[in-house]
Amino acid sequence: MQHDNPIMQLRGVVKGFPNGTLALRGVDLDIEQGKVHGLLGANGAGKSTLIKILSGAYWATLGDIIWRGNPVKWDSPKAANDMGVATVHQHIPLVPTLSVIENIFLGNRGLWRLSAGIRREYEELCQRIGYRLDPDALVGNLSIGERQMVSIMTAVGTGADLIVMDEPTASLAAEERELVYTTVRRLSKGENKAILFVSHFLDEVMALTDQVTVLRDGTAVLRANTADLDEDRIAEAIVGKQIVALERQAQERTPTAGTARLQLQNLASKGRFGPISLEVGRGEVLGVAGLLGSGRSEFLHAIYGSDRDATGTVLLDGLAVARNTGAAVKAGMGMVPEDRMAQGLVPEFEIWRNTTLPALGGVSVLNAMPIEERERERGWEAIRTLSIKASSPDILVKDLSGGNAQKVTIAKWLYSGVKLFLLDEPTAGIDIGAKTDILRLVRKLASEGQSVIIVSSEFEELLAVSDRIIVLRDGQCVAVRSAHETSEHELLLLAGGQAASVEAAVH
C-alpha cells in the first residue's frame, strides 16, 4: 500500500504491561492527511492500546512514533493534543451539567465567561462541520447522537490535524450515523484532516475509509487500500484461523423438542430494538450475536422486565410475566448484567452475602430470619461449585479478580430455582481460565434442563456453547442460525455487513 503523505507513522510499536501482557507486538501504521484510515480488530486485538498510545494516554514500550516526519514521545493526552492529535472516545467524556459551548471550549479555555468572540468561534465551527446545536443546551439533555457530535466538535475545535475516532457510531441510530459519516467526509476531503476511524461495522468501513489496517493479537495482519478489499477479506483477517478454546462434547445436546420454556411475542422497545418473536426450549442455549449498539443488552433487559417501556408479551412456561424485575425473578428468571459491580453485586458485601441475596428464603427460618451459618455454608458451596479462587466466603467481592467476581454474580442465581438465565457478556474482561469455567457452567446448566440466553461480543464463545444463535443489527433480528451450521466469519458478516448482503443471507 503506497503512502504519499503520512502525517503519523508508527514503526515497530510494542506495548507491554507489568503483568506480562503484550498488547502490541511491533505494529507499523501510516496515517495520511486527507484520508480516512479504518482500524479494525476483534476484542483484545490491541485497538484500544494503540489508540491510547496515539492520544498520549500510554507510552510505547518499544518502537517509534513519527509525527510530521519527526520522532515524538508525548507523555500525556494534553501533550498529544497540543501537537495536533485529538481523540473522540467511545465513552463520551463530556460534562452533562455544562452547556454545549462550555463543553466544546472547556479544554483550552477553562470556565471563563463566554465572550462574544467564543460564540463567533462556535458559529464558525458549526459552519465548518455543517451541523449546529443550540450552544446553551445542557449536554445532559442531549441524545447520544447529539453528544457524539459535541465530542467531534470538541476535537475539531482544538485545531487538530489528526482526529482519532474510537467507535464513534457504535451507539447511534442509522440517521445519526449518517450525520457522523458526512462530518468525517467533510473533515477529511474538505479540510485535509487525517482521520483514524475505529469500527466493528464492515459496511461503514468499506463505504467511508480510504485505507484499512486490521489488528489481530497485537499485530497488524492486514494493511491495504480499501478499494482493493471486500468485506469477506476483512472478516477473514479479523477472525484469522479459528481457535476453538472450548471444544463441544462429542455427543451434541438436543434441547427437549416441543417444550418451550420462553415465548416472546412481538417484544419491542421503541428506539432500541424489535419487534422480536421467538421461542427458547427447555435446556436450550440461545446465543445473541451483535455489535455494540445492536440492541443486544436492551433485548435481555426487556425480557427481564427492567425496561418498563418495552411492549409485547413474555411467557415463561406458558404463563405471562408482568413487566418488572420482581415478577421476572418470581417467575424463575435470573439476570447477570454486563456491569457486574454496578448492577450485579454489592461490592462491599462478602461472597456469602452476595450469593444468598436473591434466595434468602432458602437460608432462613420461616422465610423471614436468615441464618448466617447457612449463608456461609452456601458461600462455601458456591466457591467449590464454581472454582472461585477465594480462601473463604468472608472475602469481600470487591477484592476478587474480575473472573471470580463474575462467578459470584452467576452463583447467586444457582440456588434460586432459576429456569431461565439471562447472561449479558458473562466473560467480558476475565482471563481464559475463568472464561472456560463459566462457559462450561453454561453448558452444565442447559444439560440439567435450565434455559440460557447469552449475549457475547466473542462470537467464537457463542459458537462453542449455543444451540442456536440470533443476530441483531440496528435493533432488528437479521438472522437465526444453528450454531453447528454457521461460523464466526458468517456471524461477523451478518452483524456488521452491508444490509443487502445481510438480507441475502437471511433469505
UniProtKB/TrEMBL annotation:
<dbReference type="InterPro" id="IPR017871">
    <property type="entry name" value="ABC_transporter-like_CS"/>
</dbReference>
<keyword id="KW-0813">Transport</keyword>
<dbReference type="InterPro" id="IPR003593">
    <property type="entry name" value="AAA+_ATPase"/>
</dbReference>
<keyword id="KW-0762">Sugar transport</keyword>
<dbReference type="GO" id="GO:0016887">
    <property type="term" value="F:ATP hydrolysis activity"/>
</dbReference>
<dbReference type="InterPro" id="IPR003439">
    <property type="entry name" value="ABC_transporter-like_ATP-bd"/>
</dbReference>
<dbReference type="InterPro" id="IPR027417">
    <property type="entry name" value="P-loop_NTPase"/>
</dbReference>
<dbReference type="InterPro" id="IPR050107">
    <property type="entry name" value="ABC_carbohydrate_import_ATPase"/>
</dbReference>
<keyword id="KW-0677">Repeat</keyword>
<keyword id="KW-0472">Membrane</keyword>
<keyword id="KW-0547">Nucleotide-binding</keyword>
<keyword id="KW-0067">ATP-binding</keyword>
<protein>
    <submittedName>
        <fullName>ATP-binding ABC transporter protein</fullName>
    </submittedName>
</protein>
<feature type="domain" description="ABC transporter">
    <location>
        <begin position="8"/>
        <end position="242"/>
    </location>
</feature>
<dbReference type="Pfam" id="PF00005">
    <property type="entry name" value="ABC_tran"/>
</dbReference>
<feature type="domain" description="ABC transporter">
    <location>
        <begin position="257"/>
        <end position="499"/>
    </location>
</feature>
<keyword id="KW-0614">Plasmid</keyword>
<comment type="similarity">
    <text>Belongs to the ABC transporter superfamily.</text>
</comment>
<dbReference type="GO" id="GO:0005524">
    <property type="term" value="F:ATP binding"/>
</dbReference>
